[in-house]
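Appendix B, example 12.
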Amino acid sequence: YAENFLIAIYDEQTGIVNWPYVTDEVDNQPADWKPEPLKEFKGATAYAIKNLKTLHVGVDGLRLRNKGEYDLVGALPVDGVFIPLKAGQKILGALAVQSYIKGIIYSEQDVKVLEFVAQHISTALMRVRALEAERQRTEELAQSNKIQTALYKIADAASASHNMQEFYAQVHRTVRELMHAENFYIALHDEQTGILSFPYFA
């Protein structure tokens, strides 16, 4: 039974937990699922993430709540299972299922199935993150190469231009290749007179 299901993602750099996927029959208001700092979050999801351990509400929930290990957040479920998403000791987030219906509780076998699913989600997340990091590195390298090419063009223009106005225009054309630069000017400051002049303005 997984009518109430969520995936939480934890960002180690920012310390924020966000909820890319939530479907819940009771707590389904978007405002209830805003990103939250893990250190300030006391719910069952936070327990699974912080402790790298599965929390089965029907088995351990009351005992752990009484010990102050976590607080109830939102509607009271009849049962729920909160499982960390992890790769080794690296925490990626958590997934959970909940039941609000009397008589629908999760068995030990259900928990094992979810833990198995969580392992595969964790592997998929690591692959996606690796691909995203590679894509970002490729984009940064491409941008770096574009900037390097632009610098060469500007250096060539400095030696090839017959007058400064031609040089400034070439600088503008080169910057246009890097970004939107229809509105562009070059200002020069004369230290002796303190005067600011604009030899090129578009």
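The beta strands are 4-11, 16-23, 36-37, 55-56, 79-87, 90-99, 185-189, 196-201. The longest strand covers residues 90-99.
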